[in-house]
Please model this.
Amino acid sequence: MPKNTNEKNSKGKKTNKASTVKKSETKKTQVKKVETKKVQPKEKVEVKETEVKSVEVETIPERKEEKSELLNNIKNSMNTLSIVVICIAVVLLGALIYVVNTKRVPKTSNGDEIIATINGKEFTADDLYEALKEGSGINELVNIIDNYIADKEVTVTDDDKAYVQEVVDYYKDYADYSQVDFATFIANYIGIPGVETEDEFYDYVLKDYMKRLAIIKFIGDETSEDVLKKYYDDNYSDTQTVRHILIEVDSDAEDQEKADKEAYDKAVKLIKELNETSSKKLESKFEELAKNNSDDTGTYANGGLFENFNKKGTDEAFWNASLKLKDGEYTKEPVKSSYGYHIILKVSSTPVEEYKDIKDDVKRDFAENQLSEDSALFTKKWDELRKQYKLSIKDDFMKSAYEKTIKNATNVEEEDE
Model:
């Protein structure tokens, strides 16, 4: 693993790249949850109107873990129709509902309900409706529709609630450490206006998270058995735990052939030391050599321990070499990967569960992967799901606005790719 790295994976190991990571819906597969830690900036954070940036985690075998950025998926789901001025629209809609349901509402001579007057000028419920629909009306309409669909499609579990609470706690802690009022922090830093309390933020995140789960379910359910089985075969495998020593090749050396040979020779020398070690002392000797020689800054301090990785995203040479070893065995020749030369000691492995036993997990994982690869897919699938629910917008203006919004959102997302 490259030196001078500063991110951490789920085991607390430092990693070498930044990545966007989503919450895994898989409960039985190899991916494990990551504890959310308190954010402790050394200095007061100046809140600016900016979007939260993604962070990608990549390890020696390139493993992607969840939650380097907890709210990224939630925000992406809102990009479907770019909901704006929510607080204002909600207040106005509330006023409209109140007017419609109040019996003692004054009316014009032609029966229109009057909701306000100024200097004799009457403003009716129809005036308000027209103003709303020409402003953020289509966004509010679709938001209401999607909330309804998500409620029908998704059953929220305790794990889902716990995850959403972690999101809220994470940003509450960050706001506290930044010495910024929570509502101001959420409005300016996260880009969600109109949220005043933690409970309101929780409800907001939960609803949007349910919308994402609804689309994950939709994609998974419509995917054929053959596609899912192939995805399982390509991405699911035994889980392995090893210790390894990485000897990097000096990429700055003028003579790369010489640098490669020096790294190889050093690895061979370390293997000879292991060959001279008794089986009882082998693992402790390996730990000692890793601490003193490994260039993997993420694992050397723990004696080269690399836990619970699987085939998906793993360097092929590293994976194959690890897989061939029995527990307690080590590679007798240096293993060349894109990172350098490795010496690998097998600690343990756990067999992968059969497809039929984790089919639901595979479907969720497949859907998440599809969404990450196609930025326009979320918008497209929501349009399809609404049609499946036989959405029919009766107002011509709102119907046209909806169609334009879907087309524009899809085009923008495809261009961003």
The CA atoms of residues 342 and 376 lie 40 Å apart. DSSP finds 13 helices and eight strands in the chain.
